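protien #1 (seq + structre)
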Amino acid sequence: ALGHAAVIVPADGAATLVVDMHYHYYPAERVAEAIDDVIHDTNVVRGVAGALITKNLARGRLGFVGSQIISAKHFQALKDALPGVEWRIVDDLLIEPMLIKSEAEWRIIRHGCQAVNEVTDDVLAAAEPGASEFDLMQRAARGLAERGCELWWLRPAGTRRLEDGQIYFMSVVGWCQGYFFDIARNKIVGAKAGARPNATLDTLNAFILRQAEELKPGRTGAQAAAF
């Protein structure tokens, strides 16, 4: 269960976050805004069991959200540690609220999208013959940080330098106040770009823009996917 976290939400009282990595990895003020109490335990199952016992929640019916994440082994360990608990899988309690965003969430998401668009525009403009993949990655990281976002990784990020006529493809994954962005951009590098049309890139880019037009209010996911 390394890399996992759990939140215990009582019917009344403070919520508790259980993490395996110490939360000094995260800004303390952000954690304080989001949660009342934090427990650090390298064994998240043990940490959850201990927190439930401390909160007098070790008996009775408890709902479990996240059945698609926890392994059968770790769920069994949780049940063994708390034999007085009757567990109910209630994933839908969280799925619907995750799908429906508040205005505050929309502001964060729009800011993150605008930031990554501005930064990748800047990086693509700098992706000229002689530029190194690593330098372009650092340029993206700095640009996102200046906009209050964080780059998790950008590929490619080697020491190779771009050549005239090369296709530069960048895959960017990052974070903005708890919300992910994951995009890809591409261009033909240098003076050969205008003289060398690329049917594959042109077709893919046109398809993505056309597909985005299908995402309209009132449409279902199935209708958009049918395109």
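ok now protien #2
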Amino acid sequence: ATPLGQAVARELVKRGRIVKMVNRSGRAPAGLAEQGVQIAAGDACSLEFTRQACQGAAVVYQCAQPHYHEWVEKFPPLQASILEGAASAGAKLVAGENLYMYGEVDGPIHEGLPYAAATRKGKVRAEMAEALLAAHRAGKARVVIARGADFYGPGVLDSSLGERAILPALQGKPASLVGSLDVPHTYTVVDDFGRAMVVLGERDEALGQAWHVPNPPTLTQRQLMTLFFDEIGGPARMSGMGRLMMSLGGLFIPAARETVEMMYEFERPFVVDSSRFERAFGDSATPHAQAVRATVAWYRRHLAGRSQGAA
């Protein structure tokens, strides 16, 4: 299950809901099985499977995605299958998205902006969002979209503020980040994203719209990574990989190759406006200091578990 899916499940468990997670392995993420979360193994690209998996659901949370380098080919049919499953069950569909569909933006990124992406993945995101909202308008399904920025937090490894940054910092090495370290860049806390998706699933007035989830105040990557070093205890050493290094890495690593077209998000200010959600449903953003503390604690456990596994 994705980190976002796990965050949604944790929030639902807190609220006393019956939760069923779907993944390919059928194995429950650590801590969730003990809390009564059911697990169904299957391929969400299969219409037959999604119809079966969604039966009896009141709300379906779409947190699944293919590998980054397979987005263009596999993401639209995956989401279409999940939409069909939710529609067949008469369930609400809450879809988690990022902000690629807007393209390069001057000024704060808000929900009223046009979908102006020039990148391959941005165009796919725009097409998928339009398909969801069209299904809602047509009465096929009740849909709401939650949009977050790059996120970090417990369980988040594959992120610009994930294991390539935090694990080296824990090991006394420089953190590796993407792009410029000194322009503002909004980060979403993964548990805030999950909580916002649950809120949107509970509120009918949210339906048929896209909402930017609450975020802590925007910092530069250097400022935010320095909070991690302060929590870990050590000098703040870090570097940012530019386009050339990402392009070279892309010769061997498909995910790095796919990151190059999105580098604009890390080369200029990337500031997300979530005030519309906050006015409607309240501000539930976790302060960075608190989120950093929880993230470092999780990474320490993760690193210890890896060491024991290697031994």
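The first strand starts at residue 20 and ends at 23.
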